[in-house]
């Protein structure tokens, strides 16, 4: 609207200047030119001052202006919507990945400027926070990727064994940046609910909480209805963990004592014929996976459905990485978890309104 006013002003100035000059070309006397000039100037001035009193005339224009403003403020949220769109490339020495060229804001074509964060960036971003990752083996692989990014490869080697103890929790404090990280082994959604209940009981809430579960339930119970019921219980248990508006950084305000950022680690795309047991191949079919995914959406636990968790779309990421990228039809090449971690970090950047 502001821009429109300037253009209108310039146009008016041109009219005042050039119309009388054009007329002068038609052999008008100097006095008449001055007269027309003056008359035009006054008419235009009157018009411009009257415009605000006839808003309906410019309704369409002002609506456009309002929509443009909304686009501007929703540009970060539309970038959030495209943060999962990643393409993988396989080369002779493995896989690489990057965000799609089309990974732009879906609304106004802004470049979202996603970027792979390095150790220094991550140290800045997660400085002083408490990060909790809870879930099954996918979540553990996610944790490993995140630690890989935060620690050097020497340190990583030292802790590798502890980190991979089957079905165990893992706790580490990265003193240098006051970063506390926990992995909590939680194969079932009911275990995730227990974790949430634990936070409440202790009255301490992590700054970043990544959760995900489903494969164990599919294999051992194979009942998507029950899975949906468990997800709803988890959703209802969240209560005060739910995001409380904008915070200045990833680390929540000390006085608020609440989690700011919740992420749901989606199930990977299963490749049935690669699954390593007969039981898995029989129970974990494509149809069953779809039914479990549908329960996830129906439970409205995800932000896109009105819930609190932002989806880290491992299903899409793994499917885009493809057949060759999978080890056993269920676990994927590190590159998938590396991409998932970067997706989360970029979402965190957007959410916490930080620029690097
Ligand atoms: C506003 O725009 C709509 C379509 O975009 C058009 O049908 C309508 O005539 C316009 N109204 C005015 C007052 O220009
Ligand atoms: C994306 O764009 C770059 C150059 O801007 C190009 O080299 C690359 O092939 C493109 N990738 C895809 C998947 O289109
Ligand atoms: C972490 O934050 C503290 C306090 O805000 C600051 O003093 C310190 O330099 C930061 N460290 C890093 C590695 O960014
Ligand atoms: C997870 O939940 C299951 C079923 O509710 C339970 O048997 C198991 O002990 C729990 N595991 C953990 C690590 O809490
Ligand atoms: C709650 O506090 C106890 C004791 O400090 C600790 O062992 C436990 O891990 C905490 N639970 C959670 C979910 O933070
Ligand atoms: C799934 O669980 C629900 C609730 O426990 C039960 O009513 C239903 O019969 C189960 N379905 C299957 C296929 O076992």
Characterization of the model:
- With 356 residues, this protein is of the alpha/beta class.
- The protein has 2 domains: 2-58, no CATH class; 88-351, Rossmann fold (3-Layer(aba) Sandwich), CATH 3.40.50.
- It has 13 helices and 8 strands.
- The protein has helices at residues 2-25, 30-50, 59-82, 119-126, 137-150, 153-163, 189-202, 215-220, 224-238, 278-283, 286-298, 314-321, 334-351, and strands at 86-91, 94-99, 130-135, 170-174, 179-185, 208-212, 261-265, 310-312.
- A 6-stranded mixed β-sheet has the order 4-5-3-6-7-8, sandwiched between helices. A two-stranded antiparallel sheet has the order 1-2.
- β1 and β2 (94-99) form a beta hairpin.
- The radius of gyration is 29 Å and the shape is elongated.
- The model is unreliable at 60-73, 243-247 and 252-257 (pLDDT under 50).
- It binds 2-acetamido-2-deoxy-beta-D-glucopyranose (6 copies).
- One 2-acetamido-2-deoxy-beta-D-glucopyranose binds at residues 195, 198-199, 202, 204.
- Residues 123-124, 127-128, 177 line the site of one 2-acetamido-2-deoxy-beta-D-glucopyranose (NAG).
Please name the fourth-level CATH homologous superfamily of the largest domain: SGNH hydrolase
List the helices and strands in order. HHHEEHEHHEEHEHHEHHEHH
Measure the end-to-end span: 32 Å
Residue-averaged pLDDT, rounded? 82
Count the E strands.
8
Helix-strand makeup class? alpha/beta
Helix percentage: 40-55%
Q: Kindly give the count of domains.
A: 2
Architecture (CATH level 2) name of the largest domain: 3-Layer(aba) Sandwich
C-alpha Rg (nearest Å):
29 Å
Hetero groups = 2-acetamido-2-deoxy-beta-D-glucopyranose
């Amino acid at each position: 609207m502001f821009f429109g006013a300037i253009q209108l002003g310039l146009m008016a100035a041109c009219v005042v200047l050039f119309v009388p000059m054009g007329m002068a070309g038609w052999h008008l006397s100097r006095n008449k030119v001055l007269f027309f000039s003056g008359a035009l100037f006054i008419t235009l001035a009157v018009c411009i001052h009257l415009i605000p009193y006839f808003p309906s005339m410019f309704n369409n224009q002002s609506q456009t202006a309002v929509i443009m403003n909304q686009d501007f403020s929703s540009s970060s949220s539309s970038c959030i919507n495209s943060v999962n769109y990643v393409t993988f490339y396989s080369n002779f020495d493995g896989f690489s990945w990057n965000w799609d060229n089309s990974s732009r804001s879906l609304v106004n074509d802004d470049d979202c400027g996603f970027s792979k964060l390095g150790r220094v960036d991550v140290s800045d971003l997660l400085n002083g926070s408490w990060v909790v990752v809870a879930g099954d083996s996918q979540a553990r692989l996610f944790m490993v990727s995140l630690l890989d990014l935060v620690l050097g490869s020497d340190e990583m080697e030292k802790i590798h064994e502890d980190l991979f103890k089957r079905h165990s929790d893992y706790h580490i404090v990265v003193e240098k940046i006051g970063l506390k990280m926990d992995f909590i082994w939680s194969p079932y959604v009911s275990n995730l609910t227990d974790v949430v209940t634990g936070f409440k009981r202790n009255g301490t809430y992590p700054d970043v909480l990544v959760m995900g579960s489903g494969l164990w339930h599919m294999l051992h119970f194979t009942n998507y209805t029950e899975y949906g019921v468990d997800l709803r219980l988890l959703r209802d248990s969240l209560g005060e963990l739910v995001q409380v508006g904008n915070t200045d950084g990833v680390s929540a305000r000390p006085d608020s004592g609440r989690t700011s950022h919740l992420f749901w680690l989606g199930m990977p795309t299963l490749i049935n014929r690669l699954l390593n047991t007969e039981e898995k191949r029989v129970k974990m079919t494509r149809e069953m996976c779809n039914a479990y995914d549908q329960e996830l959406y129906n439970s409205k636990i995800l932000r896109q459905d009105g819930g609190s968790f932002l989806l880290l779309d491992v299903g899409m990421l793994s499917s885009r990485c493809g057949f060759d990228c999978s080890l056993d039809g269920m676990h994927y090449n590190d590159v998938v978890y590396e991409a998932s971690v970067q997706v989360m970090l970029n979402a965190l950047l957007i959410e916490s309104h930080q620029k690097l």
